[in-house]
Design a protein that fits this description.
Structural class of chain B: mainly beta
Number of domains of chain B: 2
Low-confidence stretches of chain A: none
CATH architecture of the largest domain in chain B: Beta Barrel
CATH superfamily of the largest domain in chain A: Thiolase/Chalcone synthase
Number of strands of chain A: 11
Oligomer: heterodimer
CATH topology of the largest domain in chain B: OB fold (Dihydrolipoamide Acetyltransferase, E2P)
Strand order of the largest sheet of chain B: 4-5-6-8-7
CATH class of the largest domain in chain A: Alpha Beta
CATH class of the largest domain in chain B: Mainly Beta
Structural class of chain A: alpha/beta
Mean pLDDT of chain B: 96
Number of helices of chain A: 14
Helix content of chain B: under 10%
Number of strands of chain B: 8
Order of helices and strands of chain B: HEEEEEEEE
Shape of chain B: globular
Number of domains of chain A: 2
């Protein structure tokens, strides 16, 4: 495999938009191409992520549509879907295509738009990522799935609702420093604990919002990357799966796919959790951040809640997690999230994330989880 | 020769009040169908086994923001139940007050009918 780098990033404002997924992606993609300092004609493939466009916009075949709006109608496109991990899956495949020498420059990213839908309809569409026959039939929702995980973690380890609230407060504090974030507003532990119940024990402020937005990355081979202004190197990119149905999982308090993907990503990169300076991870719900910090090897099983409570994962703490505000405050346009997380890691490793910059960050990790924790991607990045 | 229990067969049996598991003829792994290879040993030698339908709540939640079409049911509880035989199933909780739910509470399988669809339910043991 050739060395591969991210040479350009683009992210739209996250929140509510009146534009289609294809329009949003095209804006992020054009920004990424200009950030990379390459001509649009150097793009040899587009790897595009979207999840519920078929339902939300009555639009399939969004890849060529996005390419057309971008002004690159002749570039081959492929659409990816792995629920909320979608554009990180697309990224891994782009890295493989460039690493294998098939293409030198690939555009990768995703877009999602759901705020044009009523909440109950968006809730229904997101639940399509759980098993239709065994799970959707019971009326389970995604907050419900993570509520089951939360209660399992609380039962096994004594994790508390206050510890989960600390994750929300921290990510809102970070999001207030990110002009692209959907929520740029600090909240308190009391706000979280007093917020409306969504799926017990999860409350409104334990949950990420519905979000419209897009993100894009330009992935390039070593020879192109060396000529770009500030390439960030892909040290590894790994994927793992776990059983789809909750009933097949051996331990709800753990995310086995996270553990498997992390082990593979560390092995490929020749690094370990102790080498990581900054993390963007999948905090779709506060409990998801706690489980992920354990599965990625940063904290012992059962201590992720304590780490959040003690501030270890805050900007200025021993391992800043989600300096962008995370899915919780930055927002979660599901088909764009993986690419947006990687864009934040690239921005951090370039040293361009002021005022939320993690000082001296040289190695970063992005973690994206899909569905019932059945798909997980973990990638490691380095400034050299 | 493996006996495949299809989703359709599983839910037709469930509709009649009977839960069916599958046991690997090689390593003894017990699972919920449908599956082709055993995820533990990769043999293809399943035998159907009846499950008695009794278990205990392993985790539960109360859904208060439901998906489209379920507002009339809300709030309602969904639980992951560990059956006595050692496999788990997700199901809607019925006839148990929401404030009586707790991890470890014994429950019993009960088929629920929604239009033409059979849904896994659990009620008092």
């Amino acid at each position: 495999m050739r060395r591969v780098a991210v040479i350009g990033v683009g992210v739209t404002k996250f929140g509510k938009h009146e534009r289609t997924c294809a329009e949003l992606f095209a804006e992020a993609a054009a920004d990424a191409i200009q950030d990379a300092g390459v001509s649009p004609r150097t793009i040899q493939a587009i790897y595009f992520g979207n999840v519920v466009g078929g339902e939300g916009e009555r639009q399939l075949h969004m890849g060529p549509q996005a390419g057309s709006v971008l002004g690159l109608p002749a570039v081959p496109t492929t659409r990816f879907e792995t629920a909320c991990a979608t554009s990180h899956s697309a990224f891994r495949h782009a890295v493989m295509e460039v690493g294998a020498g098939i293409s030198d420059v690939v555009l990768v990213g995703g877009a999602e738009r759901v705020l044009n839908l009523p909440t109950d309809v968006a809730t229904e569409y997101f639940a399509f990522a759980s098993d239709a026959v065994f799970e959707q039939s019971t009326g389970i929702t995604f907050p419900g799935v993570f509520a089951l995980i939360a209660r399992a973690h609380m039962t096994k380890h004594g994790t508390t609702e206050e510890q989960m609230a600390h994750v929300a407060v921290k990510n809102h504090r970070h999001g207030a420093l990110n002009p692209k974030a959907q929520f740029q507003k600090e909240i308190t532990i009391e706000d979280v604990l007093a917020s409306a119940k969504v799926a017990d024990p999860l409350k409104l402020y334990d949950c990420c919002p519905f979000t419209d937005g897009a993100a894009a990355l330009v992935v390039a081979a070593v020879d192109v990357a060396r000529k770009s202004r500030n390439p960030i190197w892909v040290l590894s990119s790994a994927a793992a799966s776990d059983s789809m149905c909750l009933h097949d999982k051996k331990d709800l308090s753990r995310a086995l796919a996270t553990e498997r993907a992390a082990q593979a990503a560390y092995r490929q990169a020749g690094r370990g959790p102790e080498d990581v300076d900054v993390v963007e991870l999948h905090d779709c719900f506060t409990i998801a951040e706690i489980v992920a910090t354990e599965g990625l090897g940063f904290f012992e099983p059962g201590t992720g809640g304590i780490a959040a409570e003690k501030g270890w994962t805050s900007l200025g703490g021993k391992l800043p997690v989600n300096p962008s505000g995370g899915l919780k405050a930055k927002g979660h346009p599901i088909g764009a999230t993986g690419a947006a997380q990687i864009a934040e890691i690239v921005t951090q490793l370039r040293g361009e994330a002021d005022p939320r910059q993690v000082d001296g960050a040289r190695v970063g990790l992005a973690h994206t989880l899909g569905g019932n924790a059945a798909t997980v991607l973990v990638s490691l990045f380095g400034s050299e | 020769m493996s006996k495949v229990i299809t989703l359709k067969a599983f839910f037709e049996e469930a509709r009649a009040g009977r839960l069916t598991g599958i046991r690997c003829g090689r390593c003894g792994e017990l699972a919920i169908p449908p599956k082709e290879f055993c995820p533990a040993c990769h043999e293809r030698a399943w035998e159907p086994v009846p499950l008695v339908g009794h278990g205990a709540i392993a985790s539960f939640t109360v859904i208060r923001i439901p998906p489209r079409g379920r507002a009339a049911d809300s709030p309602y509880a969904v639980a992951l139940v560990r059956l006595d035989e050692g496999v788990s199933l997700l199901g809607r909780i019925v006839d148990i007050p929401l404030d009586a739910l707790k991890v470890g509470l014994p429950v019993r399988f009960r088929p629920l009918l929604q239009q033409d669809q059979t849904v896994v339910g659990f009620g008092p043991a």
